[in-house]
Amino acid sequence: MIANLRNLLMISMLLVSANAHAAGDAQRGAISGETCLGCHGIVSYTNVYPTYRVPRLGGQHADYIAAALKGYRSGERNHPTMQAQAAGLDDQQIEDIAAYFAAMTK
Fold this sequence. Notes:
By secondary structure, the protein is mainly alpha-helical. 62% of the residues lie in helices and 4% in strands.
């Protein structure tokens, strides 16, 4: 009985810990995402080669940004510059960056 309670408590603690880790922190994201503003923070920015309009990320849904960054990191999404940027990010940094951009109003 005590062993079962102990196991239940340990599992509960792990779940709470995992959920706390997964949430993005916009303040940390401001530091990790500063580089992103060089392209994604410019209104109507267009890349020269290959030519495309760079999307503005401020106010975008955090889940979308996180999924996109994870897709670039894994190679599922194809864009060499974004793949290089996302390659060095861990899951927590991605969640933080996503929270930062989602919190932007402009």
